[in-house]
Amino acid sequence: MQNKQMNSNVIHNYCKLSISAFVLPLLLLGFIILWLYSKNALNISEYVELQKNSFLYINHTLSQYPYLQNNLTQFGDALVFLSFLGILVIYAPKIWEVLLPASLVSLLFCSSLKRIFAVPRPAVMIDNDSFVIIGKKLSGSNSLPSGHSITIFTILTILMFAFIPQKTKYKMIYSISILTFGLVLAFSRVGVGAHYPIDVISGSIIGYISGLIGIFISIRYKIFNWIGKIKYYPIILLFLLISGISLVNRIITDNLIVYYLAFASVVISFYKIICVYVKK
């Protein structure tokens, strides 16, 4: 009964959203474009030059905690972040009904915009001796927008609106806390030397929009409503099994604490889902 109540609350919260939720993020994107235009920074060289000092400052500040930044930045990997949410298949399957279309939308935005803008990464444009690179050195013309930031905010937006409080006072505190946490995760991309600040900010806004689109798709179309049905749990279990194997490989390669935590979450979710499936 509690499981059904949680899912009902999530559905109720999603249905309360209106199209006006898109206004603020679209205004913010418009402001960024106008600001870049005013600085004559709509070309690659000026775009990079405009952010060089802020990039170096943020990178030098955050890179003082390399292990922390390397762990935080992994949340931008959908495999890692979604591994923590497997248990919601039982308690709030509506969230997964939203996560799937939202992830597809975010992937479309990310891949198309990276091709359109083709901004080289910091490791290509800035002297590598002047900043810190944590983890793998990334190169190529795919810096804008930050894909990790899009993933982080797509997922956090879906979770934020799923569990948002009803009282205005608590709603503000809750929303600001979630968004602040998201920015901490997203700016780890600057901390590891992979992105410029505007890559991260624009990626966060696009992720927010992707999450909203996923919510509206799920409300209007019942494409993924099979997720909450027990007879389809073997598909979920297969996904969790593949995720667990991938996380073990990453543990062997990089040995980051976030991979251990994600793997533990996968194991717990796998066990819980099997128990429900067997009892059907």
TrEMBL record:
<feature type="transmembrane region" description="Helical">
    <location>
        <begin position="200"/>
        <end position="220"/>
    </location>
</feature>
<keyword id="KW-1133">Transmembrane helix</keyword>
<feature type="domain" description="Phosphatidic acid phosphatase type 2/haloperoxidase">
    <location>
        <begin position="98"/>
        <end position="215"/>
    </location>
</feature>
<feature type="transmembrane region" description="Helical">
    <location>
        <begin position="232"/>
        <end position="252"/>
    </location>
</feature>
<protein>
    <submittedName>
        <fullName>Phosphatase PAP2 family protein</fullName>
    </submittedName>
</protein>
<keyword id="KW-0472">Membrane</keyword>
<feature type="transmembrane region" description="Helical">
    <location>
        <begin position="21"/>
        <end position="38"/>
    </location>
</feature>
<feature type="transmembrane region" description="Helical">
    <location>
        <begin position="146"/>
        <end position="165"/>
    </location>
</feature>
<keyword id="KW-0378">Hydrolase</keyword>
<feature type="transmembrane region" description="Helical">
    <location>
        <begin position="258"/>
        <end position="278"/>
    </location>
</feature>
<keyword id="KW-0812">Transmembrane</keyword>
<feature type="transmembrane region" description="Helical">
    <location>
        <begin position="72"/>
        <end position="91"/>
    </location>
</feature>
<dbReference type="InterPro" id="IPR000326">
    <property type="entry name" value="PAP2/HPO"/>
</dbReference>
<feature type="transmembrane region" description="Helical">
    <location>
        <begin position="172"/>
        <end position="194"/>
    </location>
</feature>
<dbReference type="Pfam" id="PF01569">
    <property type="entry name" value="PAP2"/>
</dbReference>
<feature type="transmembrane region" description="Helical">
    <location>
        <begin position="98"/>
        <end position="117"/>
    </location>
</feature>
<keyword id="KW-1003">Cell membrane</keyword>
<dbReference type="InterPro" id="IPR036938">
    <property type="entry name" value="PAP2/HPO_sf"/>
</dbReference>
